[in-house]
Amino acid sequence: MPLNTSRASRGFPHLTHLPSPVSRLPSPASRLSYLAAPKGALIARDLITLTPPIERALLIGAPRKGTAARHNLDEHLEELEQLVDTAGAVVVGSITQQIDRPNPATYLGKGKIEELGTLIDAKNATLIIFDDELTPAQGKNVEDATGKRVMDRAELILDIFATRARTSEAKLQVELAQLEYMLPRLTRMWTHLEKTRGGIGMRGPGETQLETDRRLINHRIRQLKEKLADVTRAREVQRQGRRGVYRASLVGYTNAGKSSILRGLSGARDVFVEDRLFATLDPLTREVDLGENNRVLLTDTVGFIRKLPHHLVASFRATLEEVIDADLLLHVIDASHSGWEEQRRVVNTVLDELGVHDKPVLHVFNKIDRIASETLIPLEERITNLLPNSVFVSAETESGLEPLRRALLAQTRALKPVSEIRLGASEGRLLAEIHRLGEVVERRTDGAELVLRARIDEALAGRLRRAGAQVDDGKKGSASPVRTDGGDGAGNADRLVDFP
Asked: What's 299's domain CATH number?
C-alpha cells in the first residue's frame, strides 16, 4: 500500500471519499423506467451534484487545575471553534473537565469518556477535537473507545495551514511540519493491517508497511529541509539588497489586523485581507512612503496563536527570519479582544523562541473603532501606563493609521541626524541628491558656498564626503571631506561614488 500523506490522513477525509463513477450509474429499476417512457417524452437529465459531507465536531477542553487556563476556558473553546470553522467543519457541542493531570491512556477520565460517547450519539457527531495536544497513544485509545476520529489542536492547525498555503515555499514548510507530526503516529494510521508476533520471517504486513513508511517519510523530511535551506539562502540574498533601508516587521496574534495595516499604509491593493484566522502565511514586503523623503520597508508575517505547534515554528523559521533581520518590530494587538493581554504574552513567547527579544518593539493597538469611546479612554490610559511605547490605530477608518505613520517617521528620522553640509554653488547634482534622499531643514549661502542643514543617513553622508562636500553631523572629525582622487580634488567634485 503506498504512503498516504493526503489530507485524509491528517484530518478531514471527506474530500477524498467522493462517490465512485459506478455509484452514479442508474439502478436497474430506473433503467426500466427509461425504457417504459413513451416516445417523445422528455427524460430528465439533471446534473449530479456531489457535495462533501460537513464534519460535525465535538470540542473537548480539559485545562489543568491551578493553572490560568481554567479561568479562560470559555474563551479558549471559542477560539477553537473559530479554528474549526476555518477548517470547514461545524461545532455541535462541547465537553469540559478540569483535571489534575492528563490520563496517560485517554487524557480524560473514564467517566468523561463514557459521557463523550453518549454526547456523540445525541449530537450525531463525526469528529472529536481536543484543545490540547494528545500523544499518539491517547488519540488511538479515544478513537477505539468512541468509534469516531480524533484530532488535537496541533493537527487542526496543521490542516488549516495546508489549505491556506499558496506559494511553493509555504507548501514546503507546511508539508515538513505535517510529516514531522505524522511520523510518531503511523501506528495509529495502520490499525486495519494485520500484525503478528515479531521475529525473522514472522513479520506481518502491517509492521512491514510501517517500516516502509517511516523510511519514506524520513527521506522526504531530509529533502524538504534541504529545499528550505535553499529558500533561506535566497531570502538572505534578497535581504542583502535591502541593506541601508529602514525595515519594520509586523508581528502579532493571528487576525489582529496586520495585513490590513500593511495595505492601509502602503496603499497596495494586492495585499490579501480576510477576517479569518491564518489568512496570511507568506511574508509580504511593501514600501511605505512616510513623507519628507522618508521610506520604510514593511513586512507582514504569519500570525501566531496559543499552543502553536512547535513543528510549525521550526518549519517557518525561514519565513520568520524576516522578523530576525528587521530594525523594528511592530507588535500588532487587537485592542477590542477581551484576551489581548494573554495574546500579547503568547506572541512574546514565540519571539523569545526566535531570539528577537532584544529588538526594539512598538506596540500597535488596532481595531479601536470597535471600542466604545467611554471604554476606549480608560483603556488607552491603562495601556499607556503599562506599555509607554504604544500607539492606537484603526485600519478601517480614515486617518486611523496616522499615529503609526507618525511613529514610523520619528523612528526613521532618528537614524538621520541633522547635518550641516557645505558644497560649491555649482554642485547641482549633489544638491539634487540631497533633496531627493534627504530632508532639507535650512538653506543659505556663505560666500561661494551653499550651506544646508538636512537630515541624511550615513550612506548619503559618506557619498557626499567622497564627492568633496563637507558634512558635519556633530561627530568628532566628521567635517573633513574624503577625497577619492588622490587628495587634490581634481575632476571628482561633481561625481557621487557609491559604496561597494
From this structure: 3.40.50.300
Q: What is the structure's pLDDT at 363? A: 96
Question: Which amino acid is present at 176?
Answer: L
Q: pLDDT tens digits for 56-91?
A: 999 999 988 877 777 788 888 999 999 999 888 999
Asked if residues 414 and 483 have their Cβ atoms less than 8 Å apart, the reply is no
Domain around 174: 165-195+203-239
Task: Identify the residue with better confidence: 211 or 193.
Answer: 211
Separation between Cα atoms, residue 154 and residue 312, nearest integer Å: 9
* Alpha-carbon span 252 to 110, nearest angstrom: 39
Q: Are residue 69 and residue 101 in the same domain, yes or no?
A: yes
- In angstroms, the CA 302 to CA 312 distance is 11
How buried is 482 (Cβ within 10 angstroms: 0-12 exposed, 13-18 middle, 19+ buried)?
Answer: middle
Looking at the structure, tell me whether residues 354 and 365 fall in a common domain. Answer: yes
From 492, 494, 433, select the one nearest 461 (Cα to Cα).
Answer: 433
DSSP string covering 100-120: SS-BTTTBS-HHHHHHHHHHH
Q: What single letter denotes the amino acid at residue 228?
A: L
Predicted pLDDT at 420 = 87
pTM of the model: 0.72
